[in-house]
What we know:
Rossmann fold, kinase activity, thiamine diphosphokinase activity, nucleotide-binding, 217 residues, ATP-binding, alpha/beta, 14 strands, four-stranded antiparallel beta sheet, EC 2.7.6.2
Amino acid sequence: xxxxxxxxxxxxxxxxxxESYSKQHDVLFIGADRGALYLIEQGITPHxxxxxxxxxxxxxxxxxxxxxxxxxxxxxxxxxxxxxxxxLKALTYAPREIVLTGVTGGRLDHYEAAVRSIYRLQLEHxxxxxxxxxxxxxxxxxxxxxxTIQADERYRYLSFFAHEQAIQGVTLRHVKYETTxxxxxLGSTRFTSNEIIxxxxxxxxxxxxxxxxxxxx
Length: 217
């Protein structure tokens, strides 16, 4: 029952709060390139670090290596991104959840690559929880079925979008705007900014892939 937090090297101000994860005993940390330095600066020793480390100065690289328990350095010319390599490393721990942070803000191509990686891995591992989290949002792909969504004061607003194809048979319960057997069509914004009523809400659907975004006020 392990959570793996993968910290990439995007803008530092975009990171999610790492403090809450660092206090949990069943959380492992992986630093992707400059993300390893971000972890160390917050007093967190990465369980593993991966990447080509082209974003680090020689001094920063040496500092990271001093704290490395498991370090893998790759050539700059490679097919995978540093984030991809870190996600693949995370899978080796057989976690129940992977949290990816440090991929929002800054370069949009890096963000888009991270979203596509999470999407691909979610399809390959439907029982694994994969999330992108920054200081204000969580992003997650949902596969067909029923999903319970716990209320969280940090993320008041709840939005659903169709990804690649329309979502069929959408039923929302214990939220401000409930639906029964509806469709979320591609390009639709109708299911934006819902709110959970009580301790948890739920979404169920029969077909399609749902992109769920939870946001702060």
